[in-house]
């Protein structure tokens, strides 16, 4: 009788280990790719030297930055950097890549968290209401919301909001960082699309689930409509919702770059854009690898959460 | 005589579509009553209104369907007069249901303990350890081995037969007086079927619950039921005790149904009723079975036969009852 439990614990451990190995492989592929890609963009020495500098100065700079070493040597150095989380010094900022990165990271996390919270807080209830009142006016309102979210690009949204809320009514600061007011427009501009995609998923899954036999049985047991929807139906919506949110989270980190640039938000997206423009190899590599690691960790956590919510996953591999 | 717990009178449920231009009379003036501990069988082909009848009894019809007439008296009061809010207190407490497909009728992400215990929690006010004890009892009653382990598990960890037994426990949980079983054994294999029917019978004996057993399998009806209602195209065509219906069917549809039960070892081709049931939104004039009936004549095609008493507690709707009986005596 207890054999089942021991066996199950083994299966869960195997599940964790497997996820961990996948994560490590992903990270290695990511590191290799970014190492190759930045070296295809051109010679940083040209950008780092003032106009009219001699070839000798450029040779000197390449030598200093270690760019004259053979690629395998550079790669080995890079891998050592990845493992020790020390990516050297930024070419153009002159500061340690790691410290620049961790200076900016909290700002990015703040923005993405606010945008994600906004998208879920709007998308989930609107999706549920839309499904429960399928075909009535509330459903049409929610569908309209989803349509605008899917079709209006974030930057249009951002500029429109800026025009009304900052220029016309002066309610909110145009750009920058500081108070909660600075977060409102970037959060909405970034979260809007994701609110719409959450809404659509919740609505369609909820409609499926509401017509299922087990929801019928819950009603037959005399459960109130509220419990039927929130406990019996929504628990089943949670599973696809978590996987969507996981994917959305990654997409959002990337999409944040545009919003950060528009609102002059000092996050990682604008830092990365700047680094690419300056051909700042250490900074680009550092940002990509560290952000990649964060995304991989997040995915790992989402997988675990997923297994916790869906009992069927716990037992399968 | 035992207490009458359910009395359905002239119940009519219609589906309306296309702005009312299309009306499907899925249940048309059906009447029956059920006593404590009694089992009543509802028999008929697919699409004859059996499931709609069941859902009407708990007032959980699909949108578009509506009860347009009659009354359903449950424990002395007409539940058609209750609001949906009041119905929540009736479902699961006075009348429960077992659905057809055990693979889809349990929630995949809620554990067995919660699913079985919910109705007892809500309708009988059981909490914590008492509730758990009750769930254990129910699982034991439906023969789930090691209930303490099983109640922490989820539906996907169980076989179809086990899931249907758990569905039985779910139905019993609120201690209802009536359980409607809508083809509960259709998706189980034959050996499990027999076990399940025995289980239901034993549970009925122990709890005194009234059973409404919906099926198209006459073998099951013979084994399980006291009374039978034969439905055709939304209407009752014959009603009576199991013994009488099997020994002396009055309606040609009933006789045809009985003949179409395959016999083990017989090399004869399977008997079938020619033709299709009529379109419920466009019922023919006269008897709705006439076009498939071997003994129908012009009168049958023109006039609808009334449901008349043909013996003690025995009803049938056919113009040819006497002829039918006579021909059987000759044979």
Give the arrangement of secondary structure elements.
The complex is a heterodimer of chains A (317) and B (331).
Chain A: H1 3-38, H2 44-48, H3 55-65, H4 71-84, H5 97-132, H6 137-151, H7 154-168, H8 181-210, H9 213-220, H10 225-262, H11 268-277, H12 281-309, H13 311-315
Helix pairs in contact in A: 1-12, 5-6, 5-8, 5-10, 6-8, 7-8, 8-10, 9-10, 10-11, 10-12, 11-12
Chain B: E1 4-17, E2 22-35, E3 39-43, H1 50-58, E4 65-74, E5 77-78, H2 84-87, E6 95-98, H3 112-124, H4 128-141, H5 147-150, H6 160-173, E7 178-182, H7 190-207, E8 210-215, H8 218-224, E9 227-232, E10 235-241, H9 242-247, H10 252-259, H11 298-302, E11 308-311, E12 314-316, H12 321-330
Parallel strand pairs in B: 3-8, 3-9, 6-7, 7-8
Antiparallel strand pairs in B: 1-2, 1-4, 4-5, 9-10, 10-12, 11-12
Helix pairs in contact in B: 3-4, 3-6, 4-6, 6-7
């Amino acid at each position: 009788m207890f054999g089942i439990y021991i066996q199950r614990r083994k299966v869960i451990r195997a599940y964790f280990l497997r996820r961990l190995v996948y994560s490590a492989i992903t990270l290695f592929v990511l590191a290799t790719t970014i190492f190759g890609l930045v070296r295809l963009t051109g010679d940083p020495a040209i950008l780092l030297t003032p106009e009219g500098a001699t070839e000798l100065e450029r040779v000197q700079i390449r030598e200093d930055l270690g760019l004259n070493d053979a690629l395998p040597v550079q790669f080995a150095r890079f891998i050592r950097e990845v493992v020790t989380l020390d990516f050297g010094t930024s070419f153009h900022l002159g500061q340690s890549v790691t410290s620049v990165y961790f200076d900016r990271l909290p700002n990015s996390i703040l923005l993405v968290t606010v945008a994600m919270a906004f998208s879920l807080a709007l998308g989930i209830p609107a999706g549920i209401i839309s499904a429960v009142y399928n075909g009535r006016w509330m459903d049409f309102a929610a569908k309209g919301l989803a349509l605008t979210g899917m079709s209006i690009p974030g930057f249009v949204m951002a500029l429109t909001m800026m025009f009304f809320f900052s220029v016309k009514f002066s309610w909110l600061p145009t750009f920058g960082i500081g108070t909660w007011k600075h977060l409102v427009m970037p959060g909405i501009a970034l979260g809007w699309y994701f609110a719409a995609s959450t809404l659509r998923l919740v609505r369609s899954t909820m409609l499926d689930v509401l017509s299922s036999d087990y929801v019928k049985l819950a009603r037959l047991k005399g459960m109130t409509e509220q419990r039927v929807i929130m406990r019996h139906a929504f628990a089943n919506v949670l599973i696809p919702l978590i996987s969507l949110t996981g994917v959305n989270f990654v997409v959002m980190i990337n999409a944040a770059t545009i919003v950060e640039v528009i609102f002059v938000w000092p996050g990682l997206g604008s830092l990365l854009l700047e680094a690419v423009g300056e051909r700042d190899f250490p900074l680009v590599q550092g940002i990509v690898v560290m952000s990649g690691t964060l995304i991989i960790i997040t995915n790992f956590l989402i997988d675990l959460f997923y297994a916790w919510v869906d009992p069927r996953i716990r037992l399968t591999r | 005589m035992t207490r009458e717990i359910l009395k359905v009178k002239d119940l009519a449920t219609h589906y309306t579509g296309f702005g009312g231009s299309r009306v499907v009379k899925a249940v048309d003036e059906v009447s029956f009553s059920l006593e404590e501990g009694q089992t009543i069988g509802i028999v008929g082909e697919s699409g004859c209104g059996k499931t709609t009848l069941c859902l009407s009894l708990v007032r959980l019809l699909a949108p578009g369907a509506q009860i347009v007439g009659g009354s359903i008296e449950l424990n002395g009061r007409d539940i058609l007069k209750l609001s949906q809010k009041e119905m929540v207190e009736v479902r699961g407490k006075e009348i429960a249901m077992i659905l057809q497909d055990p693979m889809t009728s349990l929630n995949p992400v809620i554990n067995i303990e919660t699913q079985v215990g919910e109705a007892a929690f809500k309708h009988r006010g059981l909490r914590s350890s008492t509730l758990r004890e009750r769930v254990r009892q129910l699982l034991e009653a439906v023969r789930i081995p090691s209930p303490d382990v099983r109640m922490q598990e989820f539906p996907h960890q169980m076989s179809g037969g086990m899931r249907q037994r758990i569905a039985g426990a779910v139905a019993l949980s609120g201690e209802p007086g009536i359980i409607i079983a809508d083809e509960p054994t259709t998706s189980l294999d034959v050996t499990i079927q027999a076990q399940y029917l025995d289980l239901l019978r034993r549970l009925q004996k122990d709890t005194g619950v009234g059973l409404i057993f919906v099926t198209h399998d006459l073998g099951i009806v013979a084994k399980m039921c006291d009374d039978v209602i034969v439905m055709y195209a939304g209407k009752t065509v014959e009603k009576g005790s199991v013994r009488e219906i099997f020994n002396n069917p009055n309606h040609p549809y009933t006789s045809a149904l009985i003949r179409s039960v395959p016999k083990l070892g017989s090399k004869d081709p399977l008997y079938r009723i020619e033709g299709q049931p009529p379109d419920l939104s466009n019922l023919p004039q006269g008897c709705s079975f006439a076009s498939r009936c071997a003994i129908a004549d012009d009168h049958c095609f023109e006039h609808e036969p009334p449901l008349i008493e043909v013996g003690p507690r025995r009803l049938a709707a056919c113009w040819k009852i006497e002829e039918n009986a006579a021909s059987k005596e000759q044979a």
